[in-house]
Every structure is written in C-alpha cells, then in structure tokens.
Amino acid sequence: MSTASPASQNSVAEGTSTQLSCQRPTRHLQCLLMISRNTARELLARFDISICDQKVDQLIAYVDLLLRWNKKINLTSISTAEECVTRHFGESFMISRRVKLHGLLLDIGTGAGFPGLALKVIAPQLEVVLLEPVAKKRAFLKEVARACGLGPVQVTGSRLEEFARSKQGRTFDIITARAVGGLESLVPAAKGLLRPDGHLCLWVGKQQVEGIREVDSGLQWLEPEAIPLSDERLIMVAVRAGAEV
After folding, report:
1. CB-neighbour burial class of residue 175 (10 A; exposed 0-12, middle 13-18, buried 19+)
2. N or C: which end of the chain has fewer CB within 10 A?
3. pLDDT digits 0-9 by tens, 188-205
4. How many distinct structural domains can be found in the chain?
5. Residue-wise burial string across 106-134, b where 16 or more C-beta atoms lie within 10 A, e elsewhere
C-alpha cells in the first residue's frame, strides 16, 4: 500500500497497518472496558454492519480516546460511548454499502475523523488524506491513528480551496464531507479533485438535498439514502462522468 509523502510535516509516521484478516487484539485494546464488543456489534447491526473482533477493538479504542480528549477540546457534542458508535461509526461505515472503499480518499473538514479516519477501521487498504484546519484536532487524529494501529494517514491543516490549488495533479477515488457548511462551493471544488471514476459522498440534512442537486457541478447524483435512527439525515453520493454506478 502506498503511504503519504514523507515530506509532509502533517503525515503520521508509518506504522503497521491493519490487515484485512483479523489478528489477536493487543493487550491495550483488550483492557478497554468502556463498551463491550457485543454492545458495539449490536449497535452497528442497526446499520447492517458486521465487523470482526480486531476491528471492534479498534473502534472501542477510538471511542475511548474521543471521549477522553473531548473533555479538553471540543471534538463532539456526544457524551456516551453507545451514541458515538451509532452516530459516528455506524453512520460513517454505511458508505461501504454504496461505494467500493479503495484507492485514495480525501475527507474534507474531518473534525474528529468522521468519516475519513473511521473508515480505516473497516478498510485499512485505503490511503487517507484528512483536511482539518484546527491544530488540536489534528493532534487528536494523529494520536488515534497511532494508538489504534490504523496505519499511515496524512493529516493536513489546509482548507479545501488551498489544497485544491496545491494538489499538483493529485486526484482521489473518493471524497467525503460530513456535517460541513458551504456545500454549494464545496461540491464543484471537490469535483475538480475527483478521478473520472470517483465518488463524492456527503452526509447532509434533508433540507440541504435540493440545494446541492441544483449546483451546476457536472456530477451524477444517485438517490439519497436515509440514515437509520434519524428522521433528518441522509447520505448523498455523486459519481463523476465515466464512472460505473
């Protein structure tokens, strides 16, 4: 698997990436008792998601870090491990049912790593670039990648417009954005970073759907998918011309 450029000061140092086959959890992960494996599995099952013990343990470790760091910096408004599993991980993992998780992924305004870093739990083969302008959040993302054994990721403080100008021909198979504003300008900017067979995936509110569809982006929008346990949130997926739907 390719790694992020070592020249980047915001790249997480390369470590042992998670393999597709399950391995024995580390002692550190086994000691985490915030939420049980069975409970995590039951919560993910509401999203039609099933993962092995190793990946459940990585998820639990991520949740533990998220809630501990959240006491010092504003990462999430959610305060329970159970809701973190559903709202953050279940909703992020849903995209695996609609888009093949492969190649290079760019997550815009990643915040606490959702969906971009979370997807490394279920798709360790992904090469992930996380855009996050807040330095303290970038520090959190790097610590999660290291502590949870998620392998190399690139974390950068660039905003989308700046990143797009400096991309140097770099394009992505998947671009994601969850709960971010300014989608009318984000969509065409993201389209310019997509490969011809690439997918743009947005986690949005119902009231945003029509406005996004009206943006003249040249993308083909698929039917939005409702998010379980929510009456207001949807996932929208667009395909750049030439892609196989």
Report:
1. buried
2. C
3. 999 999 999 999 999 999
4. 1
5. bbbbbbbbbbbbbbbbbbbebbbbbbbee
